[in-house]
Design goal:
- This protein is an alpha/beta fold.
- The chain folds into two domains: 143 residues, Response regulator (Rossmann fold, 3-Layer(aba) Sandwich), CATH 3.40.50.2300; 166 residues, Hypothetical protein af1432.
- The chain is built from 14 helices and five strands.
- The protein has a five-stranded parallel sheet, with helices on both faces.
- Helix 6 runs antiparallel to helix 7 and helix 10 packs antiparallel against helix 11.
- It is rod-shaped.
- The two termini are 44 Å apart.
- 33% of the residues are buried.
Length: 359
């Protein structure tokens, strides 16, 4: 098959960003705060880290470090534990409130092992006994630096993946809806009584949902359900669709089956979400007299009620093989008489406010 003759997919252009390959960062990219009220010890530790390329700022008090940290958080915080007034653990917790990703290395004296172990459970990356061995300090800072870089890379990759999945889901959803909408349009064309039916139901349902203050996602879910509500009617024989007389019980059972069969078509398309439920429920009725499950009252989703009353309203305004169409005034009288029986009072009132009639 030639390249030009192959089908295209909405996902063909998905390519992982070239800059998402993870590489260990250079130490010169890391900023380290060294906090120790013993200036000699602090200067020694700061010098060790400067020697391997880190940008280091030294502080003699945790308060000074915290004030600067709030303005410009470092990559890594190396802090003594016992400093008086505010411990290194207190500083670490305050630092993590401003930057949850900050890597903390706690320097502890003899006898502080239990506190250090507790600090690890509270989010401190590592602890080292004082005075720290220079190599142990460099290794701990390097590990913390690389661990943070890996975490940030993972989070960026996860955000990108989620964005791509959302985009792919939307593309698949649009492809699915457009394909099924084409089938619904073909179904509508089978009879002059149904031409434009699915589109009219979809627009009416969206208008009602909007009137009832649904958010944009819900309005769209209801609109799509209106468009696809009769998906399985394509399998109903023309003889039943066009029959000018009352249907027999067996024939009516075939018609009733379109709700369950429609869901069987749509259910594998999980990306349609709650739209599938609305399709399934559009012939349920408030008093339990509907089908396919005989749900009643609040057992029926609001979206299902909206699609249901929209379909009923458009059907009232359309002619059928066995009757002429009703006028708007006649149709409103029918639905008013069925308020609280077929549909809830709220949904019925919303239809009256949002009636767009036949398009």
């Amino acid at each position: 098959m030639s390249e030009s003759s192959r089908g295209t997919s909405p996902f063909d252009d998905i390519v992982e960003p070239s800059d998402f390959r993870f590489e260990l960062p250079d130490s010169s990219e890391g900023v380290v705060f060294v906090v120790d009220n013993d200036r000699t010890s602090g200067t020694l530790n700061a010098g060790i880290l400067k020697g391997v390329g880190y940008k280091v700022r030294q502080f003699a008090t945790p308060q000074d470090a915290l004030a600067e940290l709030v303005k410009s958080p470092p990559t890594i915080l190396v802090t003594d534990f016992a400093m008086g007034g505010m411990s290194g653990l207190d500083l670490a917790q305050a630092a993590q409130e401003h930057d949850p990703d900050i890597a903390v290395i706690l320097l502890t004296g003899s006898g502080d092992e239990a506190t250090a172990q507790a600090a690890l459970r509270m989010g401190v990356s590592y602890y080292i006994k004082k005075p720290p061995d220079p190599e142990a300090l460099k290794r701990s800072v390097q590990r913390a630096f690389h661990k943070r870089a890996a975490h940030e890379h993972h989070r960026a990759m996860f955000a990108w993946m989620k964005e791509e999945l959302d985009r792919r889901g939307n593309a698949l959803r649009e492809l699915t809806v457009s394909t099924l909408a084409s089938l619904a349009k073909a179904l509508d064309m089978r009879s002059p009584h149904f031409q434009g039916h699915s589109k009219a139901v979809a627009l009416q349902a969206a208008a009602i949902a909007h009137t009832m203050n649904a958010d944009d996602n819900e309005v769209e879910a209801v609109r799509i359900a209106g468009l696809l509500h009769d998906a399985w009617m394509m399998a109903v024989p023309d003889a039943l669709v066009h029959k000018p007389k009352s249907l027999t019980p067996d024939e009516f059972a075939i018609i009733r089956s379109h709700c369950d069969r429609g869901v069987e078509i749509l259910e594998p398309m999980r990306h349609l979400g709650r739209t599938i439920r609305y399709v399934h429920e559009h012939h349920e009725r408030w008093d339990g007299s509907g089908y396919p499950k005989g749900k009643k009252g609040d057992e029926i989703s609001l979206g299902g009620q909206i699609v249901g009353i929209s379909e009923a309203w458009i059907a009232i305004l359309e002619s059928r093989a066995y009757r002429e169409s009703f006028t708007r005034e006649e149709g409103l009288k029918i639905l008013e008489a069925k308020k609280g029986i077929w549909f809830s009072a709220d949904v019925t009132d919303a239809l009256r406010s949002a009636d767009i009639g036949m398009i």
